[in-house]
Amino acid sequence: MSEGNTVNTATRLIAVQVSFPVSEKSPYRAQETPGTTAGAVRVAAMKDFTVSDSSQYTYVLTHDGRKVPDSETIGQIAGDRHSVEFRLVKELTQG
Amino acid sequence: MADQETLLNLAADEVAVAAFLAGSGGHLTRDPADAAVYWLRMRPAGVPSEIYYVRVAWSAYPHEAPSVKFADSVGGSVTVTSAWPVIPGYRPASFDICKPFTAEGYALHAEWRTGPDAWPTTGNPFLWVTEILQYDLDNHYSGRSA
């Protein structure tokens, strides 16, 4: 691998979008490096939407319907794509 | 019958719901006899051969949570136990979902009406309800009720 390729990989950014339907705000958007964790994106999006976890529920990111673990990286989820879209879902534990 | 404000607000928000369901292999149908009632065809991502039908009935949108019940078909009975998925908080024997996004849940738990569990009236609550239903089917589903 050439040094140039190494630099390109290191500086690659992935466009991230998180939608949350009951917010009056537009979807949360950011440019993230592949190594950024889904957990970091989740926390940033929750801050943007001004919501927080409690003992009775948590907010989770989903991608194609699947709950995304906080430890997963944006690069793992995006693969070769330049963007990735998440949904922020309130996981309710009452009942 | 719901008021005109409800019907207009639903008409505006149903577009995003239909698009979301289509992306999950589902479908949205507005009841021909009552425009405040919708029928959602949904399936769990892990078992796409299992089809579920959900009746979502709004009284005042977006101000009140909807009645949410599983049915045996679009326009069908909402009192069939086997029409329900097995998911924590979903109660096939009672034909209700005991969580703070349904009219049935709020009726059972008055304490949910205020604070962090209060019904959200901003944005698109119809899509919010639909996303929770799909999330539960995709992530907490353990089969069809007997």
Keywords, separated by commas or semicolons:
heterodimer; A: 95 residues; alpha+beta; Ubiquitin-like (UB roll); 5-stranded mixed β-sheet; 3 helices; globular; disordered N terminus; B: 146 residues; Ubiquitin Conjugating Enzyme; 4-stranded antiparallel β-sheet; two-stranded antiparallel ribbon
Structure commentary:
The complex is a heterodimer of chains A (95) and B (146). By secondary structure, chain A is of the alpha+beta class. In chain A, 26% of the residues lie in helices and 32% in strands. Chain A is built from three helices and five strands. Chain A has helices spanning 3-10, 38-49, 74-78; strands at residues 14-19, 28-32, 57-63, 66-67, 83-92. Chain A has a five-stranded mixed beta sheet. The longest helix of chain A has 12 residues, at 38-49. The termini of chain A are far apart. The model of chain A is unreliable at 1-7 (pLDDT under 50). In chain B, a hairpin with a 6-residue loop joins strand 1 (27-30) and strand 2. The radius of gyration of chain B is 14 Å and the shape is globular. The mean pLDDT of chain B is 96. In chain B, helix 1 runs parallel beside helix 3. Chain B has helices at 4-23, 103-108, 125-139; strands spanning 27-30, 37-42, 52-57, 67-71, 90-91, 96-97. Chain B has a four-stranded antiparallel beta sheet, with helices on one face. Chain B has a two-stranded antiparallel ribbon with strand order 5-6.
